[in-house]
C-alpha cells in the first residue's frame, strides 16, 4: 500500500511487488465519492436543454450521454466532443452552485464527461471521454471520473457494492475498472469508497538535493 496526500484528501494506492519490481494492475481507494445532483436540467447555448448528473470523485464532474448533444462518444470527432463538453461545463458553472462538505476550495466543476449512456450494470465496457480544465482531454477513462461515475451509478441503484464495471477511454481505448467497495457518509451525503484499477508505468523520476549550507535543510516550524 502507498498512501498519498492528494488535494482532495488521503488516497491509498496498491501496487503489486514481487520483491524486485512493481507490476500491474495497480489500484487505488478513493476519497468518499457521492452524487451531488441527478437529472439536473441545464440550458446549453447552441444545444438547448440537456439533463446532466453531477458526481464527486475527488473533484466534481458533469456527466451526460453524448447523444443528448447530437454526438457519438465513440465515433464523433474529438474536437466536436471537446467543444460540446466545454459548453456544458460553462453552462453548469453558471446555473448550478456546488457544495463540498469539507472545503469550499474544492467546490468547483473540473470538467464534463461525455458517455455512451450505458450506465446500467453490464459486463461490457462503457465508453467515455473526459474534458477538463482548459479543454484538456484525458488519455484514460480518468481515475476521479470513474470514481464519480461509480458513485452516481451506485446512488441510482444501477450497481451494487463490489460489482465491477469496466470503463473505456474513447480517445485511446485504455481501460479502467471500478467498483464501490464501502458505503459511508461524507457530510450530509451518502457516499462510497471506490476502488479504481488499471495499468501504470514509470514516466519519470525526481531528485532532491540538500546542500550543507542550506539553513532550512532540516525544515522549519511555525509557532
UniProtKB/TrEMBL annotation:
It catalyses: trans-3-hydroxy-L-proline = 1-pyrroline-2-carboxylate + H2O. The keyword Transcription does not apply. It is an enzyme of class 4 (lyase). One of its GO terms (molecular function) is trans-L-3-hydroxyproline dehydratase activity. The keyword Lyase applies. It comes from the Eukaryota. Its EC number is 4.2.1.77. Signal peptide: none annotated. Transmembrane segments: none annotated. Gene3D superfamilies: Diaminopimelate Epimerase, Chain A, domain 1. Keywords: Lyase. Homodimer. Belongs to the proline racemase family. This is trans-L-3-hydroxyproline dehydratase. It comes from Lanius ludovicianus (Loggerhead shrike). The lineage of its organism: Eukaryota, Metazoa, Chordata, Craniata, Vertebrata. The gene is L3hypdh.
Amino acid at each position: 500500500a502507498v498512501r498519498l496526500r492528494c488535494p482532495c484528501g488521503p488516497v491509498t494506492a496498491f501496487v503489486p511487488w514481487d520483491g524486485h519490481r512493481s507490476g500491474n494492475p495497480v489500484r487505488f481507494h478513493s476519497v468518499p465519492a457521492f452524487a451531488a445532483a441527478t437529472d439536473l436540467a441545464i440550458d446549453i447555448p447552441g444545444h438547448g436543454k440537456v439533463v446532466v448528473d453531477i458526481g464527486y470523485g475527488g473533484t466534481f464532474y458533469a456527466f451526460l450521454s453524448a447523444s443528448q448533444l447530437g454526438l457519438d462518444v465513440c465515433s464523433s470527432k474529438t474536437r466536436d466532443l471537446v467543444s460540446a463538453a466545454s459548453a456544458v461545463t460553462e453552462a453548469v458553472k453558471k446555473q448550478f452552485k456546488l457544495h463540498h462538505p469539507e472545503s469550499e476550495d474544492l467546490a468547483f466543476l473540473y470538467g464534463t464527461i461525455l458517455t455512451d449512456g450505458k450506465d446500467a450494470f453490464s459486463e461490457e465496457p462503457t465508453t467515455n471521454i473526459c474534458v477538463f480544465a482548459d479543454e484538456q482531454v484525458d488519455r484514460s477513462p480518468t481515475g476521479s471520473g470513474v470514481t464519480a461515475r461509480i458513485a452516481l451509478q451506485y446512488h441510482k441503484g444501477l450497481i451494487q457494492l463490489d460489482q465491477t464495471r469496466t470503463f473505456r477511454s474513447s480517445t485511446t481505448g485504455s481501460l479502467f475498472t471500478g467498483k464501490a467497495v464501502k458505503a459511508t457518509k461524507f457530510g450530509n451525503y451518502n457516499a462510497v469508497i471506490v476502488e479504481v484499477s488499471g495499468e501504470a508505468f514509470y514516466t519519470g523520476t525526481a531528485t532532491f538535493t540538500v546542500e550543507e549550507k542550506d539553513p532550512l535543510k532540516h525544515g522549519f516550524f511555525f509557532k
